[in-house]
Each structure stands twice: as C-alpha cells, then as structure tokens.
C-alpha cells in the first residue's frame, strides 16, 4: 500500500482488502501518530468488503485524526457494497466521504 505525503498537510493512503487492510491502516495510524499535523485522505476504491475489525480500525483512525489531532479525514472512492456497510451501521453520518481521490484531495485543500 502506498502511503504518501501528498502535500505538506495531507497524507494519502491507498487501502486494499484484508489481509492487507489491517497492515495498511496500522501503517497510517503509526504515520499519523508521528505526524499529528496531517489531514488524511484514504482511497478505498480497491476495498470490496469491510469486517468489524476494519470498521474498528477506521473508527480508531477517525478518533486520532479528528478528535485528538483536530485534523480532517476523508474516505474516497467507496464501492457500492462497502457504502452499504457504512449506511447499515450508521457510519455514513460520522465519516466524511468523496466520490474519488481527486475530489477528496480538493476538498481537504479548499476547506482550510
């Protein structure tokens, strides 16, 4: 999974399905703990399913980025099936979404 500092203020990470998802999210968490001044854009275009462990890790990342660091987290490129998981669980109301990575990055840059 590529994690890249897309700009001085934005971290971009491309996530994959499990088993890589857990490792990817853990790497993002480690990076954000070391660099708390970053906004985060997650590209979930390659993710086709989420399990409870994946959801827990996303919630942990959300807490770290938004609550602890007072930065922004944007989930981008969600597939229809994965979007259904967010709707059923009610998580569509607490996460910020973008249709694709370009829109998500633009949203993070413009809402300063």
What does this structure look like?
This protein starts with a strand and ends with a helix. It is globular. It is built from four helices and five strands, in the order E-E-H-E-H-E-H-E-H. Strand 2, helix 1 (20-34) and strand 3 form a beta-alpha-beta unit. It has a single domain, classed as 2-Layer Sandwich (Transcription Regulator spoIIAA), CATH 3.30.750. The protein is an alpha/beta fold. Strands 1-2-3-4-5 form a five-stranded mixed β-sheet, with helices on both faces. The protein has helices at residues 20-34, 52-68, 80-89, 101-110, and strands spanning 3-5, 10-14, 39-43, 73-76, 96-98. It is 46% helix and 18% strand.
Features:
Transcription Regulator spoIIAA; alpha/beta; 5-stranded mixed beta sheet; 112 residues; single chain; 46% helix; globular
Task: Give the overall silhouette.
Answer: globular
Count of individual beta strands: 5
Q: In terms of structural class, how would the helical and strand content be classed?
A: alpha/beta
The CATH homologous superfamily: STAS domain
Amino-to-carboxy terminus distance: 27 Å
Helix and strand string, N-terminal first?
A: EEHEHEHEH
Number of domains: 1
Mean pLDDT: 91
Approximately what portion of the residues adopt beta-strand conformation? 15-25%
The fold-level CATH name is Transcription Regulator spoIIAA
In summary, what is this structure?
This protein is of the alpha/beta class and 112 residues long.
């Amino acid at each position: 999974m590529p994690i890249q500092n897309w700009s001085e203020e934005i971290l971009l990470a491309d996530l994959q399905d499990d088993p890589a998802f857990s490792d990817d999210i853990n790497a993002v968490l480690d990076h954000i703990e070391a660099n708390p001044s970053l906004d985060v854009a997650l590209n979930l275009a390659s993710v086709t399913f989420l399990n409870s462990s994946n959801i827990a890790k996303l919630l942990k990342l959300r807490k770290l980025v938004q609550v602890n660091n007072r930065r922004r987290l944007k989930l981008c490129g969600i597939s229809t099936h994965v979007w259904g998981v967010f709707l059923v669980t009610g998580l569509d109301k607490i996460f910020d979404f973008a249709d694709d990575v370009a829109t998500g990055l633009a949203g993070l840059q413009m809402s300063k």
